[in-house]
Amino acid sequence: MKKLVKKIIPASVWVSARETYSKLCLNTVPAHLCDTKNLRPAAALSIDHIFSDPAIEQNWEDDHAAIINLYSNEDTMEGVNPGDRRALYYLISQLKPEAVLEIGTHIGASTLHIAMALKRAGKKGVVTSVDIYDVNHPEYGAWKRIGLSDSPRGFAEQLSCLGCIDFRTAPCLDFMHPTDRKYDFIFLDGDHSAQAVYKEVSAALSILAPNGIILLHDYYPDARPLFLDGNIISGPFCALKRIGKENPDVQAIPLGTLPWPTKQGSHKTSLALVGKK
After folding, report:
1. CATH number at residue 18
2. Buried/exposed code over 230-261 (b: 16+ C-beta within 10 A; e: otherwise)
3. Distance of alpha carbon 273 from alpha carbon 85, whole angstroms
4. Number of structural domains, the chain?
5. Residue 60's domain spans which residues?
6. Cα-Cα-Cα-Cα dihedral sign, residues 24, 30, 36, 39
7. What is the pTM of this model?
8. In this structure, is the dihedral angle defined by the CA atoms of residues 111, 115, 121 and 123, taken in order, positive or negative?
9. Are the beta carbons of 167 and 186 closer than 8 angstroms?
10. HSE-up of 186 (CA within 13 Å, CB side)?
11. Strand runs (DSSP E) across the chain, as ranges?
C-alpha cells in the first residue's frame, strides 16, 4: 500500500507530509536532559586546518586507492557520499579517537573509512557501528540488495581493518542507554526523524568522553535544500533547533563547503558538528 501511495502522490508532496509529521511527533516528546559537560567547545576545532593537512591527504590517497575498488566513487550509490566519507577520514585522522560510535551502518562505507583512519592512527582505536538490521546478513543485508560484491565485514577483512570494527545489531537507543562505555567521537547517521535525532543527541551526550565530538549527517541548515535535487531532510535541523532552545550552550555547526566534491556536482556537505558555545 505504501509503495502504491508513493506512485500516486508527487514526491514533493510525500516528502512535505513526512517532514510535517516528523515535526508534529517531535512536539510530543518530553524534554530530555542534555548534559554538555563533556562536549568539546565549538571554538576548539579548526576544520579548515584539518581538511588541508597534507599528511592526511597523502594517507587518504593511499587508502582511497584500496577503498575505491570496493565502493563506488560515485555519489549515486546508497550511503554516505564519497566527499563526506573523505571528511570523516580526515576528522578521525586528525582527532585520533580511541573509541568511536557510529549510529547507522547501512552498507558500511563510512564505517570502513573510519576504520582505515583508525588503523593509520595506530592507537588501537575501534569504531562500534550500530544498526537496527544485520548489515552483514548474506541474503538480507543492504549490501546484497544494491549489488555489492561483499558485506561490510567482508570488505573490512579485505582491507585488513576488521580489528578496528565492532559490528552491533540493535536499536540505537537500546544500545546507548545501558552502556557505561564512553566514546570520544559519535557519528549519528541513523533514523533522521526529528524525534529520533532529539533523543539520540541526548543519549550521545550521556556517553560522551571528556572533550568528545558529536557529528551529524543530513543536517540541512534552516531546513532548506543543499543539493540540486531539492530534497530536504529536516529532522536533524528541527531536533537541534529544539535542543538549542532548551540548552542555550548547544549549537549545530554545519561544515558547509568541503575542499573536494561531495554530491551532485557540488562541494556542499550535510555534515554538522554539535558543539558547545
Report:
1. 3.40.50.150
2. eebbbbbbbbbbbbbeebeebbbbbbeebeeb
3. 15
4. 1
5. 2-276
6. negative
7. 0.92
8. positive
9. no
10. 28
11. 99-103, 126-131, 165-169, 183-188, 208-216, 250-254, 272-276
Residue 196 C-alpha cell reads as 529520533
In order along its 277 residues, the chain shows pLDDT tens digits of 545 555 566 656 656 676 677 778 888 989 898 999 999 998 888 888 899 999 999 999 999 989 888 887 776 667 799 999 999 999 999 999 999 999 999 999 999 999 999 999 887 899 999 999 999 999 999 999 989 999 999 999 999 999 999 999 999 999 998 778 999 999 999 999 999 999 999 999 999 999 999 999 999 999 999 999 888 999 999 999 999 999 999 999 999 999 999 999 999 999 999 999 8
What's the chain's Rg over C-alpha atoms? 18
